[in-house]
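Risk register update: the risk of archive-format incompatibility is retired. Evidence:
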Amino acid sequence: MRRHSFEHDDMVFSFLDAGGEGKPLLVLHGHWMGGSDFGVLAEDLAPNWRVIALDQRGFGETDHAVPHNLPAYVSDVIALLDHLSITEQVPVLGHSFGGIVAYHLAAAHPDRVSAMIIEDIGVNIQDDSAPYVENWDVTFRLREALEEHLGPRLAPYLQNSIHRIAEGWTLNFDPAEFLVSEQATNGDHWDIWLQSKCPALVVSGSTSRISDAAELQSMAERREDTNFVQLNAGHSVHIDARAEFVDLLQQFLKRWHS
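Archived output:
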């Protein structure tokens, strides 16, 4: 995947684009992560699918910014599609935070979304990650020291969010800004979820500590053309169950984009 950039809302946004002749698939990362977390997925789906992964505002190599709210996140995605001159409907895969943005995008712009894959996130969001991240605004001389600070459970999922600066190794997002974004996505999103009509796939991680599988299954049951599948994985299903997730994704995309 090649990295590109564009300007929108007085900010510079960064995104990765697999290119090629495949059909475009837009992917939206979760909190703490970035578009680079889908590099392997892009390889798995090539050449049939051209994966386009946005670094959302405040994450990856995109500028830090205010405001943080769902209309702003949705406008960022539309600006990316416009920048790429993609006017046809495209499928959207959203992981965690990205899944919330995805179903808000589908509700607000049904003419731009053909189908959506929601990865391990529900619609009744009441998260508070302050206890986890309040001491993450640190820089260590050695990368290994930062990984030890993050802990053995979370460090493996934050590998692409660790970067080198002059003073040492740190995270490429501001934990305080992330908490603002988390508060912006908290709330009851049932009405938004039920507004869109495109086909959808809701994927649950069986050992996820973030989402309630019963709620995710209810999302599928209450919405037309929506399926629920649970895989043996944690919250980052596309990482923990890579092969099974890719097979599931290909089957879903083939069904609606044959």
